[in-house]
Amino acid sequence: MSDVQRPPSARRNLLFVTGTRADYGKLEPLALASLEAGHSVTFFVTGMHMMEKYGLTKAEVHSQSRFNVVEFTNQRDGDPQDIILAKTVVGFSDFLQEYVPDLVVIHGDRVEALACSLVCATNYIRCAHVEGGEVSGTIDEQFRHCNTKLASVHLVSSDEAGARVARLGEMAETIHVIGSPELDIHDQPSGVTIDQVLDRYEIRSSDYGICVFHPVTSERSTIGAQAEALFDALIASSRYFVVILPNNDPGSDAILRVIETLPTDRFRVLPSMRFAFFSELMRNANAIIGNSSMGVREAPFLGVPSLDVGTRQANRGEAPSLWNAAATDRATINRFLAEAWGRRLPRSQSFGSGNAAERFVELLDSEAFWSRPLQKYFAE
Question: Is residue 79 exposed (0-12), middle (13-18) or buried (19+ Cβ within 10 Å)?
Answer without folding.
Answer: middle
